[in-house]
Design a protein that fits this description.
Helices cover 36% and strands 15% of the residues. It has 13 helices and twelve strands. Helix 1 runs antiparallel to helix 2, helix 3 packs across helix 8 and helix 10 runs parallel beside helix 13. The structure holds pyridoxal-5'-phosphate (PLP).
Length: 379
């Protein structure tokens, strides 16, 4: 019988150690495994770049939460993306991605795959007609990120899966912002889910990681070959820290959503602000779609300042609980100035973000304290 989400997060891939009864599976800090005789392996374990029990435990846990048959974990989100793209792309192929995807994803394709002969174009993924028009016969990958970063645009995964499949493209969803607690793209028709587990899945800003989850056996074994042959695997300690974080994902995400909603509502109409971007607000253009496609609105929100870049930067440097740092998804709240921080790499491209924009990663602290911090920094 299959269990519900929170039960799976705690138990799947996390069986106790049969030799000692240790409740927590050990961290297998080993690079190699003793063979019984030449080539006769114990449970298939030979060398940690190929397989390691701690990485296996994470991969099973992540696949279970995304509702996929196969999970593959990597040393970072970008390593996971790179392994997937190397597996499926060849010179002459075209990649179509959202015009507000994670800057590092755009950089990976634009600076590494394009010089190899792949072509790239970007489109507003929330505009389905624009997506249909931008697909080409040679489009191999449709890359979707929803909610997007930093404008929290919501794209219709089920509709995009249909459109992408009709054009013969592999439909990939970067599910980092939502996490599988809020959204499971495979169930909506996507072929592949990509994660930076560095963010909500790990959840404590202490470990980098990435993952691919998918159902197709043949594609999984091809990505698995790249994982092994190119070697960007997660180390055992990193994998273990991530499994530990994932066990509390449900509790954390529920609190992230609650806090972000409270902060967003407290900011609406503030005279210093031009706009609040949060899908949980009824006037957000993606609100109804998010309510249908997600099980909550997430912990990320952005605000734009009437006072321009100077006001935005001053705010980012004035909060105290919200610490000025890149990244997101940890238990502690962070503030980020995308134009010069997370999105500096897309300056001058079609992905450039407004310079009066601030992005907040709302942590799991007490909402009243966070609201007070933000209000004080707004002056
Ligand atoms: C951080 C991030 C990535 C990249 O992951 P790393 O673990 O930093 O390599 C990819 N996509 C999104 C949406 C991210 O936020």
């Amino acid at each position: 019988m299959t269990h519900d989400f929170s039960t799976r997060a705690v138990h799947d891939g996390q069986a106790f150690d049969p030799t000692t009864g240790a409740v927590i599976p050990p961290v297998y800090l080993t690079t190699t495994f003793v063979q019984k005789s030449v080539g006769d392996l114990r449970n298939g374990y030979e060398y940690t770049r190929g397989t390691n029990p701690t990485r296996d435990s994470l991969q099973v846990q992540l696949a279970s939460l995304e509702g996929g048959r196969h999970g593959l974990s990597f040393s970072s989100g970008l390593a996971a993306e790179d392994a997937l793209l190397r597996t499926v792309l060849a010179p002459g192929d075209h990649v179509l991605m959202g015009n507000d995807v994670y800057g590092g994803t755009h950089r990976l394709v634009h600076r590494i795959f394009v010089p190899w002969g792949v072509t790239l174009s970007v489109v507003d993924m929330s505009d389905l007609d624009a997506v249909r028009a931008a697909l080409r016969p040679e489009t191999k990958v449709l890359w979707v990120e929803t909610p997007s970063n930093p404008l929290m645009t919501i794209s219709d995964i089920a509709a995009l899966a249909d459109i992408g499949h009709a054009a013969g493209a592999l439909v990939v969803v970067d599910n980092t912002f939502a996490s599988p607690y809020l959204q499971t793209p495979l169930a909506l028709g996507a072929d592949v889910v990509v994660h930076s587990t560095t963010k909500y899945l790990g959840g404590h800003s202490d470990v980098l990681g990435g993952a691919i989850v998918l159902n197709d056996d043949d594609l999984a074994s091809r990505v698995g070959f790249v994982q092994f042959a190119a070697g960007a695997v997660s180390g055992p300690m990193d994998a273990w820290l991530t499994t530990r974080g994932v066990k509390t994902l449900s509790l954390r995400m529920a609190r992230h959503c609650e806090n972000a909603q409270a902060i967003a509502e407290s900011l609406v109409g503030h005279p210093a602000l031009e706009r609040v971007y949060y899908p949980g607000l009824p006037d957000h253009p993606g609100h109804e779609l998010a309510a249908r496609q997600m099980r909550g609105f997430g912990g990320m929100l952005s605000i734009t300042f009437r006072g321009g870049a100077a006001a935005a930067k001053k705010f980012a440097e004035s909060t105290t609980l919200f610490q000025l740092a890149e990244s997101l998804g940890g238990v502690e709240s962070l503030v980020n100035y995308p134009a010069e921080m997370t999105h500096a790499s897309v300056r001058g491209t079609e992905l450039e973000v407004p310079d009066n924009l601030i992005r907040l990663s709302v942590g799991i602290e007490d909402a009243a304290d966070l609201i007070e911090d933000v209000r004080a920094a707004l002056g």
